[in-house]
Amino acid sequence: MSNTHLSQLLGLGSMLAVGATSQLLGHTLRTWKPPFPLMVVTFFFTAIGQAYNDTHSNTFVAKTKGAYRWLAVVHASYMGGCLVGPFVATGIASAGQVSKWYFFYLFAVGVCVINLALICWAFRDTLVVSKKVPSETEASRNKDAVKLIKSTLSHRSVWLLSMYYFFYVGSQITINGWVVEYLVQVRDGNLAQMGFIPAAFNGGCLLGRLLLAEPTYRLGERRMVFLYCLIAIGLQLIFWLVPNIIAAAVAVSFLGFVTGPLFATGISLGTKLFPREIHATALGYVFVFAQMGGAFFPIVTGVVAARVGVSVLQPFLVGILAGVTISWLLVPRPKSLPNDTLHQE
User: Fold this and answer.
1) How far is CA 287 from each of CA 66, 204, 205, 230, 274, rounded to the nearest angstrom?
2) Closest to 201 (Cα-Cα) out of 260, 151, 142, 285
3) Distance CA 51, CA 59 (A)
4) PROSITE patterns in the record, alphabetically (predicted)?
5) Helices 262-273, 36-62: crossing angle, 10 deg rounding
6) Domains along the sequence of the chain with CATH
7) What pLDDT was estimated at residue 19?
8) Nearest Cα to 250, choosing from 209, 207, 200, 203?
9) Nearest to 39 by CA among 105, 99, 90
């Protein structure tokens, strides 16, 4: 909601800078081990900053030449952070007799400072306070924002793509959050060793986003994502039915590899489906549902696991991946027209 209204006032560079500054503020507040209520508030700042940056960076990249390649690089960078971050956090938290885990956020602050500086340099031409003429009133700006929101919500493709991301991000977060618990409790794995399995999953996602972007685009995005989903379900079944930790580690790694390109490919498809004027607003709503899935499914898994055991993870993940597959098939096919301002669902 706030993204649409702010977009009426700020240029691209300003929106990205606001997002980066918000994340910097959140991480800075964590560096001195704040009281728990304030710690909770810091997540609001980092989350809203990430939301602004996700929406506008993806919208910008999706309009570039060879967008599918650059989207792959952007989202591979995201997985690179997911891969490196836990190792840095573990090293800091385990250093010394008294854990000073909150020092990890000094690393995050450093990354945020670099990010903000690069944004201000790269998008210096759009670091504007207002994109509107001075005579335009606040009421007219709000009216434009409301009109954009209504237009966005009227498009069936926005809701269907949002459902796809709801399941997809839910599956990724659930795997990352529960795979160690499952391997330790059900497969009797060593906790110190099982902690590297999520890193293998994230590493697989990183490689998948880099290496599969080209064949996915060349062979057809819809066809290839459907194929990746089927392979992912097969790998998940191997993880479930083969009672071997090594087989589980390999299956999880390849599961990350084949599901890696699904995020960027969905954005690429969405920008072909959505009218250009609602790209930022539509992607903002899509990412809202993505984060909802990332919160909903791990919580449900935890609630059910507390009652019947963590072994419920496996059939649950098969169901979520099936949801990813079905929701992808429901997303409309984009139709290329001579006038690129026209779109068909």
Assistant:
1) 22, 22, 19, 24, 15
2) 260
3) 12
4) MFS
5) 60
6) 2-129+137-330 (1.20.1250.20)
7) 95
8) 200
9) 105
> What's the gap between Cα 7 and its chain centre?
21
Could you give the angle at the alpha carbon of 46 between the alpha carbons of 62 and 316, nearest 5°? 75
Q: Which long-range contacts (CB under 8 A, 24 or more apart) does 298-305 make?
A: 298/170, 298/173, 298/174, 298/177, 298/178, 301/174, 301/177, 301/178, 302/178, 305/178, 305/181
DSSP state letter for 125: G
The tokens of 158 are what? Answer: 């926005």
Cα(124)–Cα(258) distance, integer angstroms = 37
Q: Name residue 132's amino acid.
A: K
Q: Is the pLDDT of residue 331 over 80?
A: yes
What are the pLDDT digits (tens) for 175-217?
A: 998 998 999 899 988 877 887 889 999 999 999 999 999 999 9
Instruction: Name the token pair of 192.
Output: 């110190």
Residue 85 reports pLDDT greater than 80: yes
Whether the predicted pLDDT of 335 surpasses 90? no
Closest Cα partner for 78 from 6, 169, 8?
169
pLDDT level of residue 142 (50, 70, 90 thresholds): low
Closest by Cα among 197, 84, 78 to 92? 84
